[in-house]
Specification:
The structure holds 3 protein chains of 3 kinds.
Chain A: H1 18-23, H2 28-34, H3 38-48, H4 60-65, E1 78-83, H5 92-99, H6 101-114, E2 119-124, H7 129-144, E3 160-165, H8 175-182, E4 206-210, H9 211-223, H10 225-230, E5 239-246, E6 252-257, H11 262-269, E7 279-283, H12 303-308, E8 317-322, H13 327-341, H14 347-365, H15 372-382, H16 392-406, H17 408-417
Parallel strand pairs in A: 1-2, 1-4, 2-3, 5-8
Antiparallel strand pairs in A: 5-6, 7-8
Helix pairs in contact in A: 2-6, 2-9, 3-6, 5-7, 6-9, 13-14, 13-16, 14-15, 15-16
Chain B: H1 4-14, H2 24-35, H3 40-50, H4 54-61, E1 75-80, H5 83-87, H6 90-101, E2 114-119, E3 131-133, E4 136-138, H7 143-151
Parallel strand pairs in B: 1-2
Antiparallel strand pairs in B: 1-3, 3-4
Helix pairs in contact in B: 1-2, 2-3, 3-4
Chain C: E1 3-6, E2 9-12, H1 20-26, E3 50-54, E4 63-66, E5 77-79, H2 83-96, H3 114-122, E6 145-147, H4 157-165, E7 172-174, E8 181-183, H5 198-201, E9 207-209, E10 223-224, E11 227-228, E12 237-243, E13 246-252, H6 265-269, E14 284-286, E15 292-294, H7 297-310, E16 313-316, H8 323-333, E17 338-339, H9 344-359, E18 363-364, H10 367-372, E19 375-379, H11 383-386, H12 388-397, H13 403-408, H14 416-423, E20 430-434, E21 446-449, H15 452-466, H16 478-492, E22 497-502, H17 508-523, E23 529-533, H18 539-544, H19 550-558, E24 564-568, H20 578-587, E25 590-595, H21 600-603, E26 607-610, E27 619-622, E28 627-631, H22 644-656, H23 666-676, E29 699-700, E30 731-732, E31 779-780, E32 806-811, H24 819-822, H25 825-830, E33 836-838, H26 840-845, E34 853-858, E35 861-869, E36 877-881, E37 894-899, H27 908-914
Parallel strand pairs in C: 1-5, 16-17, 16-24, 18-23, 19-20, 19-22, 20-21, 22-23, 24-25, 25-26, 29-30, 32-36, 33-35
Antiparallel strand pairs in C: 1-2, 3-4, 3-5, 6-9, 7-8, 10-12, 11-12, 12-13, 14-15, 14-26, 27-28, 28-31, 32-37, 33-36, 34-35, 34-37
Bound molecules: flavin mononucleotide, iron/sulfur cluster (SF4) and FE2/S2 (inorganic) cluster.
Residues 52-56, 58, 60, 82, 84-87, 170-171, 173-175, 208-210, 213, 390-392, 395 of chain A line the site of flavin mononucleotide (FMN).
Chain lengths: 423, 154, 915
Amino acid sequence: MERVLTQNIRPSEEPLTLLEYEQCGGYQGLRKALWSSPEEIQQMVTEAGLLGRGGAGFPTGRKWGSVPMGDRARHPKYFVVNADEMEPGAMKDRLLLEGDPHQLIEGIIISSYAIEASQAYIFLRWEYQLAARRLISALSQAYHNNRLGANILGSPYSLDIHLHQSGGRYMCGEAEALLSALEGRRAVPRSKPPYPTVCGLWGKPTVVNNVETVCNVPHIVKHGPEWFRSLSHTDEGGTKIYGASGRVRQPGLWELPMGTTIREVLEEHAGGMHNGHALKALLPGGGSTAFVLPEQLDTRMDFASMEAIGSRLGTGTMTVMDERTCPVGLVWGLEQFFARESCGWCTPCREGLPWVARTLEALETGDGRPGDLETLEHHVRWVRMGNTFCALAPGAMMPLESALRHFRSEFEDHVAAGGCPRR
Amino acid sequence: MLTDRERQRIEAETRLYPHPRAAVPEALKIVQDHRGWVPDEAVKEIAELLGLSPTTVDSTATFYNMILRERAGRHIIFICDNVSCWVTGYEVLRDHLCRRLDIALGETTADGRFTLLPAACLGECDRAPAMMIDGEIYGNLTPERIDEVLAQYD
Amino acid sequence: MPTIYVDGRPHEVPEEGRNLLDACLSLGFDIPYFCWHPAMHSAGACRQCAIKVFATADDSRGRIVMACMTPVTDGVRLSIDDPEAVAFRASVIEWLMVGHPHDCPVCDEGGECHLQDMTVMTGHAYRRHRFPKRTHRNQDLGPLVNHEMNRCIQCYRCVRFYQELAGGRDLDVLGWHDHVYFGRHEDGVLESPFAGNLTEVCPTGVFTDKTLKPHYTRPWDLQTSPSVCVHCGLGCNTLPGERYGVLRRIRNRFNAHVNGFFLCDRGRYGHQFVNREDRLREPLLREANGRVRPASPEEALERLRFILRTGAAVGIGSPRASMETNFALRELVGADAFHDGLSQRDHELMATIRTVLLQGPGRSASVQDVARADAVLILGEDVQNTAPLLALALRQAVFQQALGIAQRLNIHKYLDSAVREAIQQDTGPLFIATPDETPIDDAATATYRRAPDDIARLGLAVAHRLDPEASAPELLDPSTDRLAQEIAEALRTAERPLVVCGHGCGSTAVIEAATNVVCALEAAGKAGSLSCSVPECNSMGLALMDGRGLAAAEQALRSGRASVLIVAENDLFRRMGAEAAEALLARAEHVIVLDSLPTRTTERASVVLPAATFAECSGTLVNAEGRGQRFIQTFVPEGQVQASWRWLGRMLAARDGLGAPPWANLDEILGALAGELPVCGGIRNLAPPASYRLHGQRVPRRSHRFSGQTAIHAHEDVREPDPPDDPDSPMSFSMEGYHGQPPSPLIARFRAPGWNSVQSVTKFSRGVAGPLQGGDPGRRLIEPEREHSLCYAAAVPPFEPQPGRWLAVPAHHVFGSEELSAGSPSVAALAPPPSLGVSPADAETMQLEEGQELGLSLEREVRSLPVRLRPQLPRGVVTVPVGLPGLEGLDLPAWVTLIVPGLPHRGPRSRHADA
Ligand SMILES: Cc1cc2nc3c(=O)[nH]c(=O)nc-3n(C[C@H](O)[C@H](O)[C@H](O)COP(=O)(O)O)c2cc1C
Ligand code: SF4
Ligand code: FES
């Protein structure tokens, strides 16, 4: 099994320096890229079938392709890396950021080149302090070695990368809100259309990509789209960093072919359930994905397959519950988080999520009443994509909706028993 | 008054962006770095330095959760209250912390040593439950481990 | 014209690319909404305007979209009544009400609350949310606007209006999630002089009129009538509201050509002078011993008959009096003895403006024209302080060209934040040339800070760059020339170029230079328009009457040609120095003054007649654009207060022994006026005549919900007295009458079935934000004659700073500079303390510090003023605030000397010479 993104990552060791990274074949993709035209790189990434790893699975090539190029474009153009990773249960970008910063930098340069951006920003969540230190050091090496700045590697292409450390908000991860945050405003999303590729940061064409997405780019350029597709079990190209946490024996992260089954991740890599407890359900890719039940474990973890079973791949990092976990309590915790992180712009999210959270709190702490389940269902029904301004609130409804679907009787028990029977 | 050092750092930051407003989050963090929180006065001074109104700066400042607009303790504890930590025992740890420090979430200890705040998922799920003190992450927490960690901070 | 299908039926809408909410409201459908506003477009925040759209005719599922965020496309199928859309909208209002305190019974907004209307429309009646509501601490935002955050439904309209339309920076959204808070970083007076609009922009009771609170009245218990603001020359349309003889408040009256949806705070809050304790309510007679006593109208008129027969009279009219009053005075004293009551300088400025606008080629711009201009040059005028609403319009104008950027990116015009994001700083062009900084400099492409003469020279230079025939000013410095070139280019390439000037910096040279620019544009094949701000509500109307200047009045009295002086609604002490005013008054044997408040002029009068304010009579004002506008009496005042023109008519009848005044009512005097002054021909048709009836009925001033019988007069009489008759308009002083939509000049309130708030304006206009049905009220009385001859103004020499002397130029203040509003407590409270603006360079030479007291010597008087450093002021120029207490009647600009106290022997002259 080929490890691509994590080939240079050695747990609990300092990441490779620029020199070491080059010795391991790094910056080869960049050299190749600078000899190609931006359009050719876009073409390669499109053919590779790279889907955005930020959670939505949008085809990266298509996103890049919608950026106005050449004389048609307004300048400067921007490339932004979404390193906000605040999705509950997600931890994969941190691995890449801390483990191999040069891989990310190389990816940024190539991606920026592919859309003719002259300025790139890494939007990093504040809590990733170690990642920040390592990135700063790697960036400075890159500048000193002409991988960044003017005329990169002697080519006509110039690029600056700035590291922006967020002020902290889950909302900042939403691509358009991230742009507002980068501009120093409140992280409130923007209307779409216009898409950021046309009117983004400071009104200029901007591409936002996830860390993992960007890290794939040097390898695609270096080895070609065919190779990249061949890494995957399905027709969504490449490998994927999967993870597991919660009630599993060995929590962790593993780079595996895209489309590896849930069962394989859970049983082979995470070592199965903790102390022989039984799997009750799992959130496959973060807090805003729907619960997956034990009978669905043979589903392949790619965007299409997960969608087919009514959930989402999300970040691909699963959170696992056993029979001791109360779904009401767990969802309460999640909804509290989402309610807290709402930007406050649109009504269903700003007012609906706290209502949901309080209702769940009431159920869990013994104040549940008949009608509470209807209140929750009401929100599940109406806080939907299109009804809200962005995807935060609809995402927040996924665990609630699926919990109500799968564990309705437990919710009812909470009302009847006057609180959580497990407390 | 902003110190020269704060001023220099903020001015350096403004050069990284085409518009001064973009430097606001960093300017706030710089002040917080030096003083532990962002007092009203600093909001006004940052505004003046960047050519913005204090209300504009505060609008940004009050949005982000790492910007503390109230006086905080010497050390900030962020305890992760998210799924993986929740599943692995967050509530027990939180109660332990609150009891040990004799404060509720969002409060500062009487001796001004610690402020306890909830945090979004710290990306430490594989070592859940986790918390962060002054930028340092601690995973695989138990009540005993918490006691050990707290002892390291004066 | 695209067709849209609403619940199955086809409707034609005017253009593609607008949003469906706008289109549906324009078609008369009801869709609830909050964050959208006709002047602010779409934000997509509230999610209240949800409807269904269907992909094809066969699509029966459809999908929910926000009407305000969805463009009109030809053939689009939508449903407002779709059960899912209806249910979602009900859910949205339920969410919005989660934190709302439901305090309607004690809320000032009750009865005209958009939130109430939408809640009823959407059908949310039962509260399911059973948890505690959030609460907020309110802020003290100053004397004008009250803050009650608990009522907030987070529609974001307030901050969008305040920042994006009004350019304010001290109101924003704070906090996050369901704790977002709309306020300032700390308590304090809202800085924008447009803050009062928050009370109408806010769909509920968060921002309400603080001045209404002490005498609060339910909106339906207010007697209202269409009126016109009297606090500057723009003539914004207003809706005053009265109860029990007290004028309670002013609200905006929509007029697409003039003020649109907004007023400035001087206009909204300036009205309180009407209620002042010291209002003149009875005629006053001065006895031989000098004492003044009240008298009955009959006795006063008897005395007046006697006085008027003792000798000829000169009349002094007023730019703050109506056309009717000025005309009545002119009729009483004769055209030759009619004076406009302006200082000599103002008289000349107004004569210049009048000539410029009547001759052309520049057509006078309406406020709406200003908002649509796509390249603007301001010469000399600090518009936000002299004609405030023009500043709002200019903030829109700077987006006109920039909208092209958004268009090229295929961003719909209504996607407000996206448009702004795309445009960023690429706004304009707007060039501002003024002596000192102005509050709209932040929107300017470039600013130019010079003395008035140099500003005129810039104008001449621009004209020369546009048309080489226009002579270039001599000795022009290269940087000014480059700027002139840039401005000329911007104006030449614009579609709707505009030049703004006015009385503000007191220079005819500047106005002539502005005209030069428009002439040169004309020569270059571009029709430019001209906006000349004028100081008072009827400055322009008075100018059309061709009265003489005050010097002529002085001359007539001095020569003995006249011995009686009649002053109508004018305080001469605000027009000239106190000494000159005293001298003028002293020359008259008898001084007769009509006014509504005591002034230094009424104090010198032998007879004072109590004049009605704008709220107490009907009449006509002509605004800066030359638009005649009718204001209709709001209520019948107490005492013997009457419209000045009525008093003057009675005086005429008394003097000439007529049985009755020559004009019984407004229509009659307007008929006479139109006959006498052809330029005012259109003045009679500004509103329907008093005889007009709608379905046989009058138009009521009170709403059909008026509480009616009350006990307030029960100690005198338990019967409701008969409502007074109104001879001047077709409106009734009661709730009796026709309650449907009247002709636009008679709209006394905006309310439609289900729409009790001001948002109902859309039910009165043709299309959202379009003109009122039947046309906006008022009409232009002047048009430039087309067969003008280009006449370029003469050269102006450059300004030279002079040793030991400074050119004092006027500084206008939105609060404090205008006479009537300065008589209102809340406006007076916001007037700045008097100060002397000095450039840093001059301050340094003179070793002056901020706040230091300095003697200003002008017209043989020395006034002591604290120094205020004005960083942008040019050397050799100082600013003196206009009209503030102690500074009335200064004739500016003027050369002054400055006296540094404590340096009696080393005055500024020698210090400067040393330096
Ligand atoms: C509430 C919310 C939070 C998000 N947080 C993140 C995040 O932390 N990191 C990320 O890469 N994408 C996040 N996304 C997804 C981004 O909006 C966006 O789709 C992604 O950054 C695009 O990158 P990709 O195409 O490479 O996946 C979030 C989306 C939402 C709605
Ligand atoms: S769903 Fe609405 S309130 Fe929630 S985060 Fe998105 S825009 Fe903000
Ligand atoms: S009016 Fe359409 S979302 Fe608010």
